[in-house]
Amino acid sequence: MDDRRTVKVSKYLSKHLRHQPERIGLTLSGDGWVEIDTLIAAAAAHGFRITRAELDHVVAANDKQRFAVEGTRIRANQGHTVEVDLGLPTATPPPYLYHGTVARNLDAIRAEGLRAMTRHAVHLSPDRETATRVGARRGRPVVLSVDAGAMHRDGHVFHVSANGVWLTEAVPPRYLRLPEPH
User: Whole-model pTM above 0.70?
Assistant: First the structure.
């Protein structure tokens, strides 16, 4: 499977397992799972043919480990805009986590902090390198440091997904270290 096809299948899975399952007639379980055979059949019925081998390759090869397979089921690990309960336990974060963004978002972040927007949680990275890759998807990346230790001590709740992404409801501005405005 070539890289272009891998990316195309990954984006298709993200769209339909995180954001628009109904678009191809899927119904996710309350915790985000769908039968793999049902997904493959629904995709084919809507003009996107994918084999089980391609799906397995995308799940295994995805650098961000966006998807999980358990037996005959698949789900996205996080990032949903549809209502699901991933059942992630609370976790104690490391002292600092990181968030990748772009400069055009900094004024709003300074004023409001990090908000989940259309997602169910704010996504935070365990290291600067990952946050840089996340921010680079939208342009020249800016990496923000999050004082997760202080947030946790102040009662903010954190979860960590199967692929190591840290999730929290919001990050108020006082817990952020932002680059200085120019």
Answer: yes
